[in-house]
Amino acid sequence: MADPGGDYDYLLKFLALGDSGVGKTSILYQYTDGSFNPKFISTVGIDFREKRVVHHPLNSDGTRSTRGQRIHLQLWDTAGQERFRSLTTAFFRDAMGFLLVFDLTNEQSFVNIRNWLSQLQTHAYCENPDIVLLGNKADLEDQRMVDEGEAKNLAESLGLKYFETSASTGQNVTKSVEALLDQVMVRMENCVDQATLPNNVFNNNPNRGPKLREVDEANDETSSGCTC
Ligand SMILES: Nc1nc2c(ncn2[C@@H]2O[C@H](COP(=O)(O)OP(=O)(O)OP(=O)(O)O)[C@@H](O)[C@H]2O)c(=O)[nH]1
Ligand SMILES: [Mg+2]
């Protein structure tokens, strides 16, 4: 993918994966556009959406730094259907963080989380990439098939953060992407050997390197919480 241009410090690629129909496209659409389409149009192969955010790193006392990092987020949306598997897994290796999604109303999609994780271990840029686990369609409480405690236990046993989301109401959608961004940025700050990260993470322009800088948020497109 070509350099999107413009002024940013980091270009980060996140990728959504999980069974067909769990709501990957809907979550990304809700995150970038703030809207929801109840019609199911299954993704063919791969797609992506983009968003500019300003990230304020977490301080050791839990507060946020006033200094902001300008991030260009590319959100890759993979098809969950089996027939696209070899195509979609080829994109795993360029992603820095993963939104692993199951459907709270579909038990099999929860069971399949372990399969998706093993696909990730095989194809991602490293064996333990940053991942957040999302139980989606939380608005359909009367159709719930996966218990919150069960999902939390799985997430805990795998060392993953867990969020119950709704692409329909927007519940926890931004929060979960922000949580992934926090994890990825901590990894980037701690990464001594940047050669182990996927390509093109840092903006190569020496005048807009990956330094912390003051950002005029009033002039930024999408600024909030982490703040995305
Ligand atoms: N009620 C409700 N419906 C949702 C939610 N998220 C997605 N849906 C619906 O579920 C269906 C599938 O959503 P998609 O986002 O297309 O699923 P997907 O994971 O991208 O599926 P593939 O592209 O086939 O892998 C659509 O009809 C959506 O409108 C949600 O949080 N709540
Ligand atoms: Mg889709």
UniProtKB/TrEMBL annotation:
| Matches recorded under InterPro entries | P-loop_NTPase, Small_GTP-bd, Small_GTPase, Small_GTPase_Rab
Keywords in alphabetical order, please: Acetylation, Disulfide bond, Endosome, GTP-binding, Hydrolase, Lipoprotein, Membrane, Methylation, Nucleotide-binding, Prenylation
Localization recorded for this chain is:
Endosome; Membrane
Q: How does it sit in the membrane?
A: Lipid-anchor
Leader sequence segment: none
Q: Name one GO cellular component term.
A: membrane
Q: Tell me the segments the record calls region Disordered.
A: 202-228
The record, for SMART domains, names: RAB (SM00175), RAN (SM00176), RAS (SM00173), RHO (SM00174)
| Molecular-function annotations in GO | G protein activity; GTP binding
Principal localization reads other
Mind telling me which SUPFAM superfamilies this protein's record contains? P-loop containing nucleoside triphosphate hydrolases
What's its EC?
A: 3.6.5.2
Keyword Acetylation among record annotations: yes
Similarity field: Belongs to the small GTPase superfamily. Rab family.
> What's the protein here called?
small monomeric GTPase
Lineage of origin? Eukaryota, Metazoa, Cnidaria, Anthozoa, Hexacorallia
